[in-house]
Write a structure and sequence with these properties.
There is one protein chain. By secondary structure, the chain is an alpha+beta fold. The protein contains 2 helices and 7 strands; from the N terminus they run αββαβββββ. The protein starts with a helix and ends in a 5-residue tail after the last strand.
């Protein structure tokens, strides 16, 4: 087993032991030709069910969270989500909502600043994504 395979296996074990079920939905924007300002969101594809590990934002001195907190890009109520590196949360103009818990749970959306993918030997191992509580996107 290579280094990346060991890291992926270790992350998967952590998710099994400490993970939370989550649902990911992707939405494509649909522009209204009548009203210039109107944008509707249309669900793109099926719901994706997976698991991830969720932590509160702590802002430990010297961390990227502390910088984003100081800049006002993160709030104390935001959370950090660690997921498998193969998941996509940013794709052009697509919007994403994340539901923590199954079958129902709180809805979150990704915060564009600060999401980080960690790789080993050029292969994505896991992603660290900042999420913020929101209502429904649609």
């Amino acid at each position: 087993m290579g280094v990346n395979a060991n890291l992926i296996a270790g992350l998967n074990r952590t998710i099994v032991l400490a993970g939370t079920q989550l649902r990911v939905r992707y939405y494509d924007p649909v522009f209204d030709p009548v009203y210039d300002e109107s944008i509707d969101l249309l669900q793109s594809g099926n719901n994706l069910w997976t698991s991830g590990v969720v932590f509160p934002v702590r802002g430990t001195e010297g961390s990227n969270e502390s910088v984003l907190l100081a800049q006002g890009k993160l709030l104390d109520s935001d959370k950090i989500l660690f997921v498998n590196g193969s998941l996509t949360f940013t794709s052009g103009t697509q919007a994403v909502d994340i539901q923590l818990g199954s079958p129902t749970g709180e809805l979150y959306t990704t915060i564009p600043e600060g999401g980080i993918m960690y790789e080993a030997e050029g292969i994505p191992v896991y992603k660290k994504v900042f999420i913020r509580r929101t209502g429904s996107l649609i």
